[in-house]
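Exercise 7. Predict the joint structure of the components listed below.
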Amino acid sequence: MTSLATYFSMGGYGGFVWPAYALTAVVMVGLVVVTWRGLKAREAELKALQELMPGRRGRTHEAQDQ
Amino acid sequence: MHRFANPMRFVRLAAAIQPWTAGVTLILLALGLYFGLFDSPADYQQGESVRIMYVHVPSAWLAMAAYSTMAFASGVGLVWKHPLADLIAKAASPIGAAFTFVCLVTGSLWGKPMWGTWWAWDARLTSMLILFFLYLGHMALLNAFDDPTRGTKAAGILALAGFVNIPIIKFSVDWWNTLHQPASVSKVGMPTIDPSMLLPLMLMGVAFTTFFVTVLLIRVRSEILAAKVRAIRLNQIHSAPGAISGELVGESPR
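Solution:
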């Protein structure tokens, strides 16, 4: 057995150690992707809405209406 | 105006902090993985399976820290009606649920070779499962009402009531001496864990915390923008030509 295979076998516990790390990685990357996409979607939505408002942009608009 | 003054400042602040917390997270994760997977010894009893600890224990810490954040923010939201606090509670629960899930599954993967079982109705395991359901309940309640403010209130009360579970999780290993091992890091006095194992554990613990902060900040920014979109849409309806706009706009609080 090569040293790399020895390493990945984790003393016989590779079947438990690697899935644990893989799941953690998948969940963390998934959280970042979902969260980042959500932010970009909201930003695009807000930009589209603000461009629809002629002459009343951004904060001055809020200052008038809130 | 006052309703968005603080949140919009928060958005700018969060956007400025975020690259730093993200950078720190990546560096600490790299270091933690290096020490956890390469430069730390196998346990004399558990062998190499002990390396599951470096993802399992930080997940458990974060699952509880996220819940505490959520409960605290819910309390502030309920008492002082601070809109930002409600958004923080809403942003925290999916992250907490995700890490509770990671904690439960990695614990199961650790339990099978060490205890000989994937699952046991041990006090620590059961209270962790309850934490997972509390998170799911919180997320479900937020979206259960047509009126979002009612959902926020109901979910906030659940988050506060469920906080009783956090000390139960923490002390479950002392109160009920069953399967799960007691704490070895947060002991009064010296932790009973070797420094070579404590180092990767701490690195991963801090990395998970800064990861939480990073993702939370992005989620809160999203929620603030979503609230702004809703406010603009409502305004458009009220000020649309032909609507009884004068009366409605005149009534809106300044």
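Discussion. The longest helix of chain B spans residues 195-238.
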